[in-house]
Prior knowledge:
The complex is a heterodimer. Chain A is mainly α. Chain A folds into two domains: 2-72, no CATH class; 91-282, MetI-like (MetI-like fold). Chain A has 13 helices and two strands, in the order αααααααββαααααα. Chain A has helices at 2-30, 33-37, 44-54, 60-72, 86-121, 126-140, 143-157, 182-215, 218-225, 230-260, 262-267, 273-282, 286-314, and strands spanning 170-172, 175-177. Chain A has a two-stranded antiparallel sheet with strand order 1-2. In chain A, helix 5 packs parallel to helix 13. By secondary structure, chain B is α/β, with parallel strands linked by helices. Chain B contains eleven helices and twelve strands. Chain B has helices at residues 47-55, 81-87, 99-102, 109-118, 125-138, 144-149, 157-169, 187-204, 215-221, 239-244, 249-256, and strands at 5-16, 19-31, 36-40, 62-71, 74-75, 92-95, 175-179, 207-212, 224-229, 232-238, 304-307, 310-313. In chain B, the strands form two sheets. An eight-stranded mixed sheet of chain B has the order 6-7-8-3-9-10-12-11, sandwiched between helices. In chain B, strands 2-1-4-5 form a four-stranded antiparallel sheet. The radius of gyration of chain B is 20 Å and the shape is globular. The relative contact order of chain B is 0.14. Classes of the chains: A mainly alpha, B alpha/beta. Chain A binds chain B through residues 217-219, 221-229, 232, 236-237, 240-241, 244, 314-317, and chain B through 55, 57, 85-90, 93-94, 96, 98, 101-107, 115-116, 119-120, 151, 153, 164, 167.
Amino acid sequence: xxxxxxxxxxxxxxxxxxxxxxxxxxxxxxxxxxxxxxxxxxxxxxxxxxxxxxxxxxxxxxxxxxxxxxxxxxxxxxxxxxxxxxxxxxxxxxxxxxxxxxxxxxxxxxxxxxxxxxxxxxxxxxxxxxxxxxxxxxxxxxxxxxxxxxxxxxxxxxxxxxxxxxxxxxxxxxxxxxxxxxxxxxxxxxxxxxxxxxxxxxxxxxxxxxxxxxxxxxxxxxxxxxxxxxxxxxxxxxxxxxxxxxxxxxxxxxxxxxxxxxxxxxxxxxxxxxxxxxxxxxxxxxxxxxxxxxxxxxxxxxxxxxxxxxxxxxxxxxxxxxxx
Amino acid sequence: xxxxxxxxxxxxxxxxxxxxxxxxxxxxxxxxxxxxxxxxxxxxxxxxxxxxxxxxxxxxxxxxxxxxxxxxxxxxxxxxxxxxxxxxxxxxxxxxxxxxxxxxxxxxxxxxxxxxxxxxxxxxxxxxxxxxxxxxxxxxxxxxxxxxxxxxxxxxxxxxxxxxxxxxxxxxxxxxxxxxxxxxxxxxxxxxxxxxxxxxxxxxxxxxxxxxxxxxxxxxxxxxxxxxxxxxxxxxxxxxxxxxxxxxxxxxxxxxxxxxxxxxxxxxxxxxxxxxxxxxxxxxxxxxxxxxxxxxxxxxxxxxxxxxxxxxxxxxxxxxx
Lengths: 324, 321
């Protein structure tokens, strides 16, 4: 177990290193931020001063090692646009994305898993066919379009919900979140539903597939031969088996939504990290892009680690071995 | 004495694209308490479907379309789904072929057994586990208390099949149906389990239906034998009668194909051809195309010929010497 953790951490270090090189080179190739930042009419002297100040006159490898050296001192650099440290910039945006993602993944799971289980339990019923048809819509209709329809319907025409923004935040334990206020919930619910539709479709199909497969297994037949009622077979026997692939997808979706809730955050003008990264790319804010992507890698590595640990809890046949 | 299990005219049909397929065709037999009945046949003869039909576990597109299944005099076919469920596991239990697959891989043996105990007898979980431990003891599992905490993959195949048998025994059912229960096991383990099953039938008085394709296993274990072919029972009698003096040409063919009964170095006799598809049965006797004794008469339905309790479904049964 300890060996496993050490192996995983070393793996993570390698991934972060490789990722940082790719990102650094890639971002360097996109364009020169000075061109975006500075007034075209500025004198050559001011230009050169700025270039020297940011170290852009150095060769790329030297810039990279300066960056790595600073990272090891806990300094991810300053945003060129906001002129504040990248860490505080990202962490000021992170709670907004976190609450959006948690609510949306929560909605997707709470509705998607039971719906999928039912669709798999009675695969030939009308309800099951309806659920499956909706799940296809869930992940084939573009997110931004549904988002705009939601705004049109609930914000513009009905006027029930605000069309965007984060709303009032309240104190919950040691951080501020909009989930602590009713106004916050009113703001979060529409983007969260929008974000959850794709995941819900995925969860439904995955759960249904697992359920259909499990219903045909010998252990289910054996359980029926013992006289167990269906309710107990589904919740006592099958649930645990189908939760194994579900946890994997849950983890992956959690990670990718946290990192790339970009479309929804843009449509609903949600001040999260997805919006931050899009703005940074448009403004060629290099330090933000690099640091953000490195943090995303770390996030994925961490989520995968947690998923593996849960895996081992769910399936006794899984043994966690060092390194592999 | 009433039979523990009395099957009368059991017929199970499947709706397929090729039309109705009768997998179990007018099957009748009875098993007395403490007796073991071997149900023998090739794959596809309908013997497993017979087992599932008895328990009422045939899923769509299949359907038990006729007949009666009496257990201790109660017709399972007349019961509501809920009452039938309450019979399963309590009055009639089943053991399956593959011990690797019949236990849930992610639950501890004890948890699975406790669930099976408590579904029919409300009791606390510790009591249920205690009951399960005793059942494991009965089937000869060493240190049963530890086995309860194990996961199925931590047990050997033979051990798992013993667990499955112990689960079938939990409620001392009147009837146990074992479907190829030792087929997947080593010969030595198979021998041990067969001996235990024989003892169980003698001590608990359970009636056992032992479904297998292996006539050699049945000849050493069973009291009575039914031979199935293409969904019908073609020969029925005591083990001595069927093994010692088979009257159906098919039974004779099966016995001739057992390698152990022949001197080494000689070519093994075989039954020509293969089992017919149930959707395309020949008219009259389904064994006719493969039968050495077939005549034009066999194009009509074969009659049931009974002599000294040995019944055979044939126009030209073999005469005993």
